[in-house]
Amino acid sequence: MIVVGIFGFKNGNPDMVLYPYDSSGNQCGLSDTVTADYPYLYYVNPDESTKYTTCVKSCPKNYTDVVECYPNTWVTSCAFTVTTKDGSIYDYEPYGSSSVLGKACLPNPDAIGGKTEKFMDYIQSDQFTQYITDIAVCWTMVLGLLGMAIVISIIYMIFVRYFVRCALWLSFAAIIGLFVLFGLFLD
After folding, report:
1. Per-residue confidence (pLDDT) for residue 32, from 0 to 100
2. N or C: which end of the chain has fewer CB within 10 A?
3. Are residues 63 and 93 in contact, defined by beta-carbon separation less than 8 angstroms?
4. 18-27, 73-82, 171-180: segment of lowest average pLDDT
5. CA–CA dist 59, 68 (Å, integer)
6. CA–CA distance, 180 with 55 (Å, rounded to integer)
7. Cα 31 to Cα 38: distance, rounded to the nearest angstrom
8. pLDDT at position 1 over 70
9. What whole-number percentage of the chain has pLDDT above 70?
10. Which helix (H) or strand (E) holds 182?
11. Residue 34, CA distances (Å) to 14, 63, 69, 73, 78 in order
């Protein structure tokens, strides 16, 4: 398991998860990219849709702030002009927001005339919070199962070392038994 973790860290890309993506797939704030100077993800109109986002240099504190952003396919200007898939063009004003975890600009409760219900519903929806909630609730179970897997692996290695012939036949029987069980459930 340690080898798999090391392999994943060496050959994987943790930045794929650590930096947020805008609506065009640009990672906000990722070094050596065009959006390296734009570390925050900004929801252009969170009250109506959460799919139009852009990377910004700083979160606007109120609607009068001038915002520096990285325009993308959908958000075509820093005046927050959105071009939809059907070609419709909408202009939005910036709203007061705050940085969360140094990655995203979330609207202040009084932003957009106090109409942030849809966005807050999105933030509190199952779609957004299910994984985070599951991990927060079950972290002790995950660690317990990890420890149990390590203990069972150690016992199995000791068993294989001292009882090779028996362990080999038990392993074959277990594999065949699993194939039979899965075959019964697939029918």
Report:
1. 80
2. C
3. yes
4. 73-82
5. 9
6. 52
7. 10
8. no
9. 72
10. helix 164-186
11. 19, 26, 11, 14, 16
Q: 112-117, long-range: CB within 8 Å, 24+ apart, which pairs?
A: 112/46, 112/47, 115/47, 116/46, 116/47, 117/47
**Which residues make Cβ contacts (< 8 Å) with residue 83, sequence separation at least 6?**
73, 74, 76, 89
**Is a pLDDT exceeding 90 seen at residue 149?**
yes
Distance CA 137, CA 131 (A): 10
58 Cα distance to chain centroid: 21
Q: What's this model's pTM, rounded to 2 decimal places? A: 0.55
Query: Long-range contact list for 181-185, CB < 8 A, 24+ apart?
Result: none
In this predicted model, what pLDDT tens digit does every residue of 50-72 receive, in sequence order?
A: 677 778 888 877 777 777 777 77
The b/e string for 143-176 (b: 16+ C-beta within 10 A; e otherwise) is eeeeeeeeeeeeeeeeeeeeeeeebeeeeeeeee
- One-letter amino acid for residue 77 of the chain: S
For residue 116, what are the CA distances in angstroms to 60, 96, 103, 140?
16, 11, 20, 35
Q: What's residue 54's pLDDT? A: 79
DSSP 47-109: TTEEEEEEEESS--SSTT----EE--SSEEETTTEEE-TTS-EEE-----EEEETTTEEEE-T
